[in-house]
Amino acid sequence: MLSREEKARMVEELKERLSSAQAAILVDYKGINVEDDTKLRRELRQAGVEYKVVKNTLLSRAAKEAGYDALLQYLEGPTAVAWGIEDPVAPARVLYNYAKDHENFKFKVGILQGTIIGVDDIVNLAKLPSKQELIAKALGSMNAPITNFVGVLSATLRNFVYVLNAIKEKKSA
Questions:
Q1: How many separate domains does the chain show?
Q2: CATH no. for residue 15?
Q3: Using one digit for the tens of pLDDT, what is the confidence trace for 72-107?
Q4: Close Cβ partners of 26 (under 8 Å, ≥ 6 residues apart)
Protein backbone atom coordinates (compact mmCIF):
# COMPACT_ATOMS: atom_id res chain seq x y z
CA MET A 1 0.00 0.00 0.00
CA LEU A 2 1.30 3.42 -0.95
CA SER A 3 1.93 6.05 1.68
CA ARG A 4 0.29 9.46 1.49
CA GLU A 5 3.61 11.04 0.45
CA GLU A 6 4.14 8.52 -2.36
CA LYS A 7 0.62 9.13 -3.65
CA ALA A 8 1.17 12.91 -3.55
CA ARG A 9 4.45 12.49 -5.42
CA MET A 10 2.79 10.28 -8.06
CA VAL A 11 -0.09 12.76 -8.50
CA GLU A 12 2.42 15.59 -8.96
CA GLU A 13 4.37 13.51 -11.50
CA LEU A 14 1.20 12.67 -13.45
CA LYS A 15 0.11 16.31 -13.39
CA GLU A 16 3.50 17.40 -14.74
CA ARG A 17 3.36 14.84 -17.54
CA LEU A 18 -0.20 15.81 -18.50
CA SER A 19 0.82 19.47 -18.62
CA SER A 20 4.14 19.10 -20.46
CA ALA A 21 3.46 16.33 -22.99
CA GLN A 22 2.66 17.17 -26.61
CA ALA A 23 0.08 14.39 -26.52
CA ALA A 24 -1.35 11.94 -24.00
CA ILE A 25 -3.56 9.02 -25.02
CA LEU A 26 -5.61 7.12 -22.43
CA VAL A 27 -6.46 3.51 -23.27
CA ASP A 28 -8.36 0.58 -21.81
CA TYR A 29 -5.98 -2.38 -21.97
CA LYS A 30 -8.07 -5.15 -20.36
CA GLY A 31 -7.77 -8.57 -21.97
CA ILE A 32 -4.20 -7.97 -23.20
CA ASN A 33 -1.73 -10.71 -22.30
CA VAL A 34 1.78 -10.10 -20.97
CA GLU A 35 3.51 -11.04 -24.23
CA ASP A 36 1.43 -8.55 -26.27
CA ASP A 37 1.86 -5.87 -23.61
CA THR A 38 5.65 -6.35 -23.68
CA LYS A 39 5.63 -6.02 -27.48
CA LEU A 40 3.55 -2.83 -27.26
CA ARG A 41 5.85 -1.31 -24.64
CA ARG A 42 8.89 -2.07 -26.84
CA GLU A 43 7.28 -0.38 -29.88
CA LEU A 44 6.31 2.65 -27.81
CA ARG A 45 9.81 2.95 -26.35
CA GLN A 46 11.34 2.80 -29.85
CA ALA A 47 9.00 5.62 -30.92
CA GLY A 48 10.08 7.77 -27.94
CA VAL A 49 6.76 7.38 -26.13
CA GLU A 50 6.36 6.88 -22.37
CA TYR A 51 3.69 4.35 -21.38
CA LYS A 52 2.39 3.66 -17.91
CA VAL A 53 -0.52 1.88 -16.26
CA VAL A 54 -2.04 4.29 -13.76
CA LYS A 55 -4.56 4.20 -10.94
CA ASN A 56 -7.71 6.08 -11.86
CA THR A 57 -7.89 7.82 -8.48
CA LEU A 58 -4.36 9.22 -8.83
CA LEU A 59 -4.91 10.22 -12.46
CA SER A 60 -8.21 11.92 -11.60
CA ARG A 61 -6.49 14.03 -8.92
CA ALA A 62 -3.71 14.93 -11.36
CA ALA A 63 -6.24 15.77 -14.09
CA LYS A 64 -8.16 18.08 -11.74
CA GLU A 65 -4.96 19.85 -10.68
CA ALA A 66 -3.84 20.20 -14.32
CA GLY A 67 -7.22 21.63 -15.37
CA TYR A 68 -8.43 18.59 -17.31
CA ASP A 69 -11.70 17.96 -15.46
CA ALA A 70 -13.25 16.58 -18.68
CA LEU A 71 -11.01 13.50 -18.36
CA LEU A 72 -12.74 12.35 -15.18
CA GLN A 73 -15.66 10.74 -17.02
CA TYR A 74 -13.25 8.41 -18.86
CA LEU A 75 -11.46 7.11 -15.77
CA GLU A 76 -13.28 3.83 -15.26
CA GLY A 77 -11.81 0.37 -15.68
CA PRO A 78 -8.15 -0.31 -16.38
CA THR A 79 -6.32 2.75 -17.67
CA ALA A 80 -2.92 3.19 -19.23
CA VAL A 81 -1.48 6.44 -20.58
CA ALA A 82 0.94 6.93 -23.47
CA TRP A 83 2.74 10.29 -23.46
CA GLY A 84 4.29 11.79 -26.56
CA ILE A 85 6.87 14.19 -25.18
CA GLU A 86 8.43 15.36 -28.46
CA ASP A 87 6.26 13.92 -31.24
CA PRO A 88 2.51 14.35 -30.73
CA VAL A 89 1.65 11.82 -33.43
CA ALA A 90 3.86 8.94 -32.24
CA PRO A 91 1.68 7.63 -29.38
CA ALA A 92 -1.48 7.72 -31.48
CA ARG A 93 0.20 5.95 -34.40
CA VAL A 94 1.74 3.12 -32.36
CA LEU A 95 -1.41 2.56 -30.28
CA TYR A 96 -3.65 2.66 -33.37
CA ASN A 97 -1.53 0.06 -35.18
CA TYR A 98 -1.58 -2.10 -32.06
CA ALA A 99 -5.36 -1.72 -31.59
CA LYS A 100 -6.00 -2.95 -35.16
CA ASP A 101 -4.75 -6.41 -34.12
CA HIS A 102 -6.19 -6.44 -30.57
CA GLU A 103 -9.93 -5.90 -30.37
CA ASN A 104 -9.92 -5.65 -26.54
CA PHE A 105 -7.54 -2.68 -26.65
CA LYS A 106 -9.68 0.49 -26.73
CA PHE A 107 -8.99 4.21 -26.85
CA LYS A 108 -10.66 6.24 -24.11
CA VAL A 109 -9.67 9.84 -24.75
CA GLY A 110 -6.62 11.94 -25.58
CA ILE A 111 -4.98 15.28 -24.98
CA LEU A 112 -3.28 17.01 -27.89
CA GLN A 113 -1.28 20.11 -27.00
CA GLY A 114 -3.64 21.02 -24.16
CA THR A 115 -6.91 20.17 -25.94
CA ILE A 116 -9.01 17.11 -25.11
CA ILE A 117 -9.68 14.98 -28.20
CA GLY A 118 -12.01 12.06 -28.82
CA VAL A 119 -11.41 8.64 -30.30
CA ASP A 120 -12.09 9.81 -33.89
CA ASP A 121 -9.50 12.57 -33.50
CA ILE A 122 -6.98 10.06 -32.14
CA VAL A 123 -7.52 7.82 -35.19
CA ASN A 124 -7.14 10.80 -37.56
CA LEU A 125 -3.98 11.83 -35.73
CA ALA A 126 -2.59 8.31 -36.09
CA LYS A 127 -3.14 8.41 -39.85
CA LEU A 128 -1.09 11.60 -40.31
CA PRO A 129 2.31 11.24 -41.97
CA SER A 130 5.29 11.26 -39.63
CA LYS A 131 7.27 14.42 -38.94
CA GLN A 132 10.13 13.18 -41.15
CA GLU A 133 7.73 12.48 -44.04
CA LEU A 134 6.21 15.96 -43.76
CA ILE A 135 9.66 17.58 -43.71
CA ALA A 136 10.72 15.54 -46.75
CA LYS A 137 7.58 16.60 -48.65
CA ALA A 138 8.12 20.25 -47.75
CA LEU A 139 11.77 20.14 -48.83
CA GLY A 140 10.80 18.37 -52.05
CA SER A 141 8.25 21.09 -52.78
CA MET A 142 10.83 23.78 -52.09
CA ASN A 143 13.45 22.01 -54.20
CA ALA A 144 11.23 21.47 -57.28
CA PRO A 145 11.25 25.10 -58.58
CA ILE A 146 15.04 25.29 -58.19
CA THR A 147 15.49 22.01 -60.07
CA ASN A 148 13.18 23.18 -62.86
CA PHE A 149 15.02 26.52 -63.11
CA VAL A 150 18.38 24.75 -63.39
CA GLY A 151 16.88 22.50 -66.09
CA VAL A 152 15.68 25.51 -68.10
CA LEU A 153 19.06 27.24 -67.82
CA SER A 154 20.97 24.14 -68.86
CA ALA A 155 18.63 23.56 -71.82
CA THR A 156 19.18 27.15 -72.97
CA LEU A 157 22.95 26.80 -72.69
CA ARG A 158 22.86 23.42 -74.44
CA ASN A 159 20.81 24.88 -77.33
CA PHE A 160 23.23 27.81 -77.56
CA VAL A 161 26.18 25.40 -77.82
CA TYR A 162 24.34 23.43 -80.55
CA VAL A 163 23.78 26.66 -82.53
CA LEU A 164 27.45 27.66 -82.19
CA ASN A 165 28.54 24.18 -83.21
CA ALA A 166 26.23 24.29 -86.27
CA ILE A 167 27.63 27.71 -87.30
CA LYS A 168 31.19 26.39 -86.88
CA GLU A 169 30.46 23.34 -89.04
CA LYS A 170 28.76 25.48 -91.69
CA LYS A 171 31.73 27.87 -91.95
CA SER A 172 34.28 25.04 -92.05
CA ALA A 173 32.37 23.32 -94.87
A1: 2
A2: 3.30.70.1730
A3: 999 999 999 999 888 888 899 999 999 988 888 899
A4: 71, 74, 75, 79, 80, 81, 107, 108, 109, 110
